[in-house]
């Protein structure tokens, strides 16, 4: 999924970005309130990680403005102050959850998984289509009873297909969901990774469920062959 991290401490932003990318997410980062507001209103994110102390205006104000702009992506607020008043203020501004610094990056990832499942009833704990199955929490995937070893990007790509079975996903849609804005879009990286994924979840099992839709993109077949 695509995540926006709004954090002005460069070291913390890098740590959070790296941890979430290792989970297979596409991560965009910005460092102040106005830029965070612009990015969150101009782009669709599955979740937002928001620091309280920001230049421009703080995380409380940013969260309030996002909700006023009808941006309802789950917001996980980061704060250095473990005070009830701050937590209440954040929740009242529209945040969905909070973490007090210092925190475990593993807990951060788990909180985001919980928030996105809560936000969308179509996000079950384990995704499955036919014999393909994927567990976002443990980062494990299977074809039938056989576990498949996937890289973080391959895992993110399979998760995207499993969340949209039978739907044709264009290369642009795949890039927006799986790669961050640093990707320049000039290479055939989507085609390469779809081929990598096929070699792991289709070819060894004599299947062709990841289909190319000529001139459009790719689709995961949503039914067993007759």
UniProtKB/TrEMBL annotation:
Sites of 4-aspartylphosphate modification: 51
Source species, domain of life: Bacteria
Domain annotation Response regulatory: ranges: 2-116
Family matches, as InterPro entries: CheY-like_superfamily (IPR011006), OmpR/PhoB-type_DNA-bd (IPR001867), Sig_transdc_resp-reg_receiver (IPR001789), WalR-like (IPR039420), WH-like_DNA-bd_sf (IPR036388)
Protein keywords: DNA-binding, Phosphoprotein, Transcription, Transcription regulation, Two-component regulatory system
GO cellular component, one term: cytosol
One GO BP annotation of this record: regulation of DNA-templated transcription
Ranges for domain OmpR/PhoB-type: 124-222
Residue ranges of DNA binding: 124-222
MF annotations from Gene Ontology: phosphorelay response regulator activity; transcription cis-regulatory region binding
Name listed for the protein in its UniProt record: Two-component system OmpR family response regulator
Species the sequence originates in: Nocardioides panaciterrulae
């Amino acid at each position: 999924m695509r995540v926006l991290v709004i954090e002005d401490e460069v070291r913390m932003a890098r740590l959070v970005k790296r941890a979430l990318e290792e989970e297979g997410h596409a991560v965009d980062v910005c460092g102040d309130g106005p830029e965070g507001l612009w990015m969150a209103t101009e782009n669709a994110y599955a979740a937002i990680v928001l620091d309280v102390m920001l230049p421009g205006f703080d995380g409380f104000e940013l969260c309030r403005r996002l909700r006023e702009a009808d941006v309802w992506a789950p917001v996980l607020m980061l704060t250095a102050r473990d005070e009830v008043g701050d937590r209440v203020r954040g929740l009242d501004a529209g945040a969905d959850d909070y973490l007090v610094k210092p925190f475990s990056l593993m807990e951060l990832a788990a909180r985001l998984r919980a928030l996105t499942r809560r936000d969308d009833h179509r996000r079950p704990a384990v995704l499955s289509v036919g014999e393909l199955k994927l567990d976002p929490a443990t980062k494990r995937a299977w074809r039938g009873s056989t576990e498949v070893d996937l890289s973080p990007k391959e895992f993110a790509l399979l998760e995207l297909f499993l969340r949209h079975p039978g739907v044709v996903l264009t290369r642009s849609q795949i890039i927006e969901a799986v790669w961050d804005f640093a990707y320049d879009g000039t290479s055939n990286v989507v085609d390469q990774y779809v081929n990598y994924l096929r070699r792991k979840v289709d070819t060894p099992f004599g299947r062709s469920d990841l289909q190319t839709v000529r001139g459009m993109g790719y689709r995961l077949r949503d039914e067993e062959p007759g």
